[in-house]
């Protein structure tokens, strides 16, 4: 019942989700929640349990004549189960935080006057007015891959088998079999999912592509 006597045995780190006895009531199997552990308990007889100390907690309404558990209950109540990772770090911190440290000035921010020894004349003449320029343009030379996991009939021959046309990502690729070079159609702004070639003899080598 609600006010019945009980003993609380400490083992799982969190709540217990399932409890089952074996067929002869000799062992008890408990399954923990967050600790995800399975524990097997032995059901000891009363005579054996009186001789052996147990790590347990009794209910407040349990009588004193049962005995043998008061010291265990006191010890368990004094244990602190605070997680170290969540406790406040009181260790003094030394040094300067990264965002407060003084950064070394870049090449552009440094003053023009330098205490370093002068460079040879040949190096001086080559480095005058020479600065790293940002990349202005990139040219695609080779596209690797082919989209075939979710597309069908998207590879075709052109020019009597001299060229192969297909696509990958958002690029349409025309691959020349003899030279191994590629030319590209890069007007799509998303992945190409379909590609077909016109079969009418009046409109040779006209290709249509569709994107997502």
Automatic annotation (TrEMBL):
Q: Where in the cell is it found?
A: Cytoplasm, Cytoskeleton
Query: Keywords of this protein's UniProt record, alphabetized?
Result: Cytoplasm, Cytoskeleton, Repeat, WD repeat
Q: Which InterPro entries match?
A: HELP, WD40/YVTN_repeat-like_dom_sf, WD40_repeat_dom_sf, WD40_rpt, WD_repeat_EMAP
Give the start-end ranges of region Disordered. 51-72, 100-130
Main localization (coarse)? cytoplasm
Q: Name one GO cellular component term.
A: cytoskeleton
Renumbered to this chain, the Acidic residues biased-composition regions fall at: 56-69
Tell me the ranges holding the WD repeats. Answer: 9-41
- From start to end residue, where is composition biased (Basic and acidic residues)? 101-112
In Swiss-Prot or TrEMBL terms, this protein is called Echinoderm microtubule-associated protein-like 5
């Amino acid at each position: 019942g609600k006010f019945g006597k009980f003993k609380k045995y400490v083992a799982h780190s969190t709540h217990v989700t399932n409890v089952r006895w074996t067929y002869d009531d000799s062992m008890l199997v408990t399954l923990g929640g967050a600790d995800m552990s399975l524990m097997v308990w032995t059901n000891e007889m009363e005579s054996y349990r009186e001789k052996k100390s147990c790590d347990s907690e009794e209910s407040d309404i349990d009588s004193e004549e049962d005995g043998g558990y008061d010291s265990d209950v006191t010890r368990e109540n004094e244990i602190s189960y605070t997680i170290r990772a969540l406790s406040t770090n009181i260790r003094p911190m030394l040094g300067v935080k990264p965002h407060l440290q003084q950064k070394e000035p870049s090449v552009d921010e440094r003053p023009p006057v330098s205490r370093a020894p002068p460079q040879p004349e040949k190096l001086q003449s080559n480095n005058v007015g020479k600065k790293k320029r940002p990349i202005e343009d990139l040219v695609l030379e080779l596209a690797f891959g082919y989209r075939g996991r979710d597309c069908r009939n998207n590879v075709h021959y052109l020019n009597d088998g001299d060229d192969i046309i297909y696509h990958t990502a958002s690029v349409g690729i025309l691959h020349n079999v003899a030279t191994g070079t590629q030319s590209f159609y890069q007007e799509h702004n998303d992945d190409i999912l379909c590609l077909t070639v016109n079969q009418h003899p009046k409109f040779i080598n006209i290709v249509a592509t569709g994107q997502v």
